[in-house]
Write the structure tokens for this entry.
Amino acid sequence: MSPSPARRGRELPAPPARWRQLFGENGIQRWVFYIPVVFFVLFFAAPMTLTVVWSVFERTQFWMEPGFTLFAYDNFFTSARAENYLYSMLHAAASVLISFVIGFPIAVFIRRRVTRAAQHRVILLFILPFMISELVRVFAMRPVLGRNGVVNSVLMDLGILSEPITSILYSPLGVIIGDVMSFLPFMIFAGFLALEAVQNYVFEVCDDLGTGRVRLFTDIVLPLAAPGIFAGSVFIFVNSMGVALVPTLLGGPGAVNAGLIANQAIVALDFPLAMAISTIMIFTLVLLLYIGHRLFDLTKILEPIS
Amino acid sequence: MYDDFASPWNIRLKWAYLLAVVFALLMPVFYTIGISFNQHGFGARIYEFTFDWYRVVLGDTLLVVSLKWTLYLALATIAATIPMALLSAKFYKRTRRKVGFVALMLSPLFVPADIMGSSLLVFFKNLARGFAWLGDALGVSWFDGWFDLGFLTAVIGQVIYTHPYAFIVILITMSRYRVQQTEAARACGATAWQAFWHVEFPQIRVGVFSSCAFVTILSFNEAVRTALLKGGFDTFSNMLVAQMLNIGMSGESYAMAGIMSIVSMLVIGTVIVYTLVRAERLERRARAMAEPVMSS
């Protein structure tokens, strides 16, 4: 803390009375804290809620007009879009599972085996890749996974492959790898944050009682970290389904997800359809978060910083 | 019972795994940067170091203009996001309805970029039409152009995207601040603002500056929401997407990706190094204060 007049014991100048009245605690200061709430209600909650209304509007040539029709939903559910949506859910679930298998042990290791003072420093290692543009990270997968890319070159140089694998890039596998590489750090952050709320003595008691690794993991670590795992999983699942960049760059011609379908609808000026897809996506998200909150009480994740 | 430290190889293996994952996450980015400095581009057997691709990018007027727009957008986003994140963190501390508030503040994290961008696009178009209609009804031209897609709508989109990150970082820093210090300052006659500015802010300053860095990077890197909400100008990442989709993976694309990665790594690297150095200094000071006074 830098030395300030208050700390040095000097008297602070009293603000003028009119200033106090206007900017004092009964003036603007009382309401200024509501600015973020108003902003987010106006520019986030309202657009997300109105999405449902716009999805039942009538489509016109370039825009839409008020009315009530379920044509956009009919269009979605009776076309290949619904099937593609389900496929993207499947790919997203695979990305969540792989991210959990790779990332959660790291969160447990950092929490349990790294000294308290160094834990946040180790977590910083994962901030760096997370902060590099997702666009660049996904783009960078192309020269790595491609026919002449690093993976094929290394495997061929080692004599494991006789010819390059072409099915990694521009395939569902490429999309899953892209999603995992993009969102994996979030599983580590959320898992670590949830485990941070668990006191050390819990693990010490288990060690003293000679609890085995499997039982410790299934009966202690998993239930205690459940809110974090769930939050991380929902983040990865929803973004895998909704970020169009990954299938666009890594999935090839046939690859789509919910975000890409919504984008294509916007490009085709079918705004009610785009809003219907957004509504289905938002409904999926709200349902997942509601179930998660009922089961695991997601506010527990914020306990260490509350 | 098991003990990792009884078997050093056990713990070394775990560290190796952790570092391998970090390497795997960063390797494609470094590989891309490597290609961007190769005269012959991707896939060539010969590697000749050059800055030519960067010269091409920085010599392209359109790209330089897009860089300027990106910078303006980042500055405007910081100016709006950081004070709002501070207010949100303060509000979170004092409100009793924490669940609803935190759900509203963190929800944008869980809404994918394309979905949020589409919803905001339709929202702003409707809002602009609503204001135009209002202007017509009142017979004034004052409302013309309000919320037309442009710089303002792009900033709003970016503020919604970056605010949750800044809010979390500031909240983490604030969690170490003891509220009794504010109470003491108030008891000594300081106003709420004076207590905040002279007592609380110096202690959370690191978090505020870190969130400035995060917001800069997030804003610099954002492509999807901006593409949908920007109106008539292009940002650097929008240009990169257009280049990748229309031209393909050219040397110029690699250089653009290289610029984005290097800028991000420099800013975040600086924050990480500063955080580590500061933590080390604070620890040393705490140790020195905890040491017993030695008689000479």
Remarks:
- Strands of chain A lie at 58-59, 64-65.
- Residues 80-113 of chain A form the longest helix (34 residues).
- DSSP finds 15 helices and two strands in chain A.
